[in-house]
Amino acid sequence: MENLVKTEFNVPTREQVSPTNQEIFDNLNKALGFVPNLYATIAYSDSGLKKYLEYQNAKTSLSNKEKEAVNLIVSQINGCIYCQSAHTVLGKMNGFDDKQLLEIRRGQSENSKLNALVKLAADITKNRGNASDENVEEFFAQGYTKENLVDLILQVSDKTAMNYLHNLTKVPVDFPVAESL
């Protein structure tokens, strides 16, 4: 039976969140100049925003550029326009040009090492943690390590959580909207 009640997710304001989240909003405003709508939405949970930001900002063996490549391909596969848009902006800030960003969202890169990372991230995402032996072997052949593999899986999980949150809440995209493929 179809659910006829639709819960609307408005983006909470600073005044509508817990004191802990108000402090995080203030810090985000200082650092970014605004609180991204998806981060604000996480603040419906008193502990969620702090926990998520600590997870997202934790030390990793992947470079910022590699993290953005993973974020883009995972968001593309999961159909999250919010994260595609945000990570197009962040990808540019981390050295990708428009052509490279679109290639990554299509699941490839001219850089062979990055290509192996993107293909494995796509495979992991599409197949819920399962990946072909070929993609795993190519990842290692390109110089990635077991530490990198663990960090890749953690990066996929980070982005999948945000993709799911936006896909369910549909809060407004507050970044320039990514080009459709």
3D structure, described in words:
- There is one protein chain.
- By secondary structure, this protein is an all-alpha fold.
- The chain has two domains: 14-56, no CATH class; 64-169, AhpD-like, CATH 1.20.1290.10.
- It is built from nine helices and no strands.
- The protein has helices at residues 19-32, 37-42, 48-56, 64-77, 81-93, 98-105, 112-126, 133-141, 146-169.
Main attributes?
single chain, 181 residues, mainly alpha, AhpD-like, 2 domains, 9 helices, globular
Q: What order do the helices and strands come in, and which of them pair?
A:
Layout: H1 19-32, H2 37-42, H3 48-56, H4 64-77, H5 81-93, H6 98-105, H7 112-126, H8 133-141, H9 146-169
Query: Which ranges are low-confidence, i.e. pLDDT below 50, for 5 or more consecutive residues?
Result: none
Total of helices: 9
DSSP E strands, number:
0
Largest sheet: none
- Order of helical and strand elements: HHHHHHHHH
Outline type: globular
CATH superfamily of the largest domain, by name, is AhpD-like
Tell me roughly what share of residues is in helical segments.
55-70%
The CATH class name of the largest domain reads Mainly Alpha
Supply Rg: 17 Å
How would you state the average pLDDT, rounded?
96
What would the CATH topology of the largest domain be? Answer: AhpD-like
Q: Helix/strand/pairing class, anyone?
A: mainly alpha
Cα end-to-end separation: 34 Å
